[in-house]
Amino acid sequence: PVATGPVKLAVIPGDGIGQEVTAEALKVLEVASPAGVTFEQTRYDLGAERYLATGEVLPDTVLSEIREHDAILLGAVGGKPNDPSIPPGLLERGLLLRLRFELDHYVNLRPSRIFPGVTSPLSREVLGDDEVDFVVVREGTEGPYTGNGGALRVGTPAEVATEVSVNTAYGVERVVRDAFARAERRPRKKLTLVHKTNVLVHAGSVWWRLTQAVAAEHPDVTVDYMHIDAAMIHMTTNPQRFDVVVTDNLFGDIITDLAGAISGGIGLAASGNINPDRTTPSMFEPVHGSAPDIAGQQVADPTAAILSTALLLDHLGHPEAAARIEDAVLADLAERGTARRRTAEVGDSVAKRVAG
Amino acid sequence: PVATGPVKLAVIPGDGIGQEVTAEALKVLEVASPAGVTFEQTRYDLGAERYLATGEVLPDTVLSEIREHDAILLGAVGGKPNDPSIPPGLLERGLLLRLRFELDHYVNLRPSRIFPGVTSPLSREVLGDDEVDFVVVREGTEGPYTGNGGALRVGTPAEVATEVSVNTAYGVERVVRDAFARAERRPRKKLTLVHKTNVLVHAGSVWWRLTQAVAAEHPDVTVDYMHIDAAMIHMTTNPQRFDVVVTDNLFGDIITDLAGAISGGIGLAASGNINPDRTTPSMFEPVHGSAPDIAGQQVADPTAAILSTALLLDHLGHPEAAARIEDAVLADLAERGTARRRTAEVGDSVAKRVAG
Ligand SMILES: CC(C)[C@H](C(=O)O)[C@@H](O)C(=O)O
Ligand SMILES: CC(C)[C@H](C(=O)O)[C@@H](O)C(=O)O
């Protein structure tokens, strides 16, 4: 399905550098939009500032309004580290994860590419000449993220605390299907399941069986399996081997930060929280946080936010527009090299390239 | 407590390269033993070969015998990848994890050092001039490794599979205390708790509170906290910042493979499965697997197995003997550079240095 005409976009700039990077992302989205597509933006002030001012995290009425949009663009949320006025995890769970769960964003899509000119912490020997270009399809609505579990005798020497990872055939199959569909569309057509089947036997078994089952419908996709611990080694010594990675919510959280790090920092990592069934708006956001220490100084790199708009356009059925943004970012990164530029300069430069 | 006189050592060489690397480790242990200390070895054939020949993984009688020893040296266990005659995870859970759990090895100790001369996948810019020298204290008897959880309606579209991470004040406090004691003995006296407190709130809370509580008794230890995803970034961009890391069983599994990779490969990574209360034998093993593809060819690097004997001697109260092994390995690594040497050559060379 291709979105045309006015697209209703909910914009949640959030806190800290979220504001600045979102402004640049919108600049680029504007010029990249295909003819006939316009974005009707509604801004939602959500995040640490809103919470500190009103005690609200995500009121139900706001969630209902957001639900009526075609897509969501989010900057970053989070207050100052260890701010005693914000209970730890409150914004993460009450806002970010609540949006992912309520809007059934079961595909958390995180592409990784080492762009030419970008500094990776990996050595030249590891990087070699082959491209690093893979995408992690992280399950977004199950696993250890469901909030199941609890605690008994808290604060006593007899305390027991549990966390329950919940995995359903329903939830695993749909995300595995999505990952195979993506692998089909990529030149190398490779899919790697990452899990810990030798220890997490029940969850591992459902992931393993459904991956095998869906694989049978995709004979042209090469499938392999890797334990999450072994994936650490491959990711740092041979990242070129990955094409599409499919994994659970927690392993996906961990491996995508590693992927971001080796691809030159999460300042470049974009992500989509996608409901492929399109019954709710999908949400696009940089992987990085709100970085309050450098907020408002125009030193944050808006590249991840800009690349998130490419994922957004792709999701709305405009892959050519998405590719134009990616190409512009690529050219911009190659040009800027190690020079530090202001947030708005990066946005302007990418927007100019996209415009033509 | 210092072990003197005859030390009863259970040796489990295991499968594949486990045999070869254990032989070299024993060679070095022999010459490194302080005056008056002798090792009385009992060999136990356990692993894939035993299972294929007899159907046994770890008979209760064997476990009882092993229990009567002072320490265990293990090579590696595991058959050929995807051997259909070995149920996946059987040896891991039935042998390795069973030993850790039955013998209450609550401290899984994994030191990481980038030795001079060793090739790290990290760039020269990241490595800089500062030493990378840290130790991960991984909890070994709780977390998602307890085998709690289950599955309902397996193989149907309505399947639900759960994995339960179990965390107790009892289990967390004792490993946190051990980690602080280790931090006290190190020059930098730094401890980093790694968890995912913003999502795994119940487990995260008990880890966080007990770390704070024990920290209050160690005012000279600097304490910080890092989410497991953020730890991926720090480990690949600034590994020098770590000194002692304390974390749960699964996060510890993941982060130590990453640590092994950046320190030049798990061919060099040693580990101890320790019961600091000394009511049962502790077990020392290389982090690597049995690598059946290169077994019996004398090409496996026995360094990790050799370094495991240093951890063993240290645990038995002989830190000077342990240091002699480490120094010998260090000198050997610097000398061999990128030259490939046979398994026995490495053992001989290290043993010679230790002896002389
Ligand atoms: C903020 C946090 C809850 C979140 C997660 O764990 O998913 C973040 O780390 C991410 O990867 O988007
Ligand atoms: C083999 C496996 C069960 C084990 C673990 O997960 O602990 C291994 O990866 C390790 O780190 O020792």
Describe the secondary structure blueprint for this structure.
The structure is a homodimer of 356-residue chains.
Chain A: E1 5-14, H1 17-32, E2 37-43, H2 48-54, H3 60-67, E3 71-76, H4 90-102, E4 107-113, H5 124-127, E5 133-139, E6 149-152, E7 160-168, H6 169-184, E8 190-195, H7 201-216, E9 222-227, H8 228-237, E10 244-247, H9 249-262, E11 270-274, E12 282-286, H10 303-315, H11 319-336, H12 343-355
Parallel strand pairs in A: 1-2, 1-3, 3-12, 5-10, 8-9, 8-10
Antiparallel strand pairs in A: 4-5, 4-11, 6-7, 11-12
Helix pairs in contact in A: 1-10, 1-12, 6-7, 8-9, 10-11, 11-12
Bound molecules: 3-isopropylmalic acid (2 copies).
One 3-isopropylmalic acid (IPM) sits between chains B (92, 96-97, 253) and A (198-199, 229).
What are the defining features of this structure?
binds 3-isopropylmalic acid; alpha/beta; homodimer; Isopropylmalate Dehydrogenase; IsoPropMal-DH-like_dom (chains A, B); two-stranded antiparallel sheet; 356 residues
Please characterize this protein's 3D structure:
The structure is a homodimer of 356-residue chains. By secondary structure, chain A is α/β, with parallel strands linked by helices. The first copy, chain A, has one domain: Isopropylmalate Dehydrogenase (3-Layer(aba) Sandwich), CATH 3.40.718.10. Chain A is 42% helix and 21% strand. In chain A, the strands form 2 sheets. Chain A has a 10-stranded mixed β-sheet with strand order 2-1-3-12-11-4-5-10-8-9, sandwiched between helices. A two-stranded antiparallel ribbon of chain A has the order 6-7. In chain A, helix 6 (169-184) packs across helix 7 and helix 8 (228-237) runs parallel beside helix 9. The mean pLDDT of chain A is 96. Chains A and B meet through helix 4, helix 5, strand 6, strand 7 and helix 6 of A and helix 4, helix 5, strand 6, strand 7 and helix 6 of B. One 3-isopropylmalic acid sits between chains B (92, 96-97, 253) and A (198-199, 229). Chains A, B: Its cofactor is Mn(2+); Mg(2+). Chains A, B: This is 3-isopropylmalate dehydrogenase. Chains A, B: Pfam families: Iso_dh. Chains A, B: NAD(+) binds at residues 289-301.
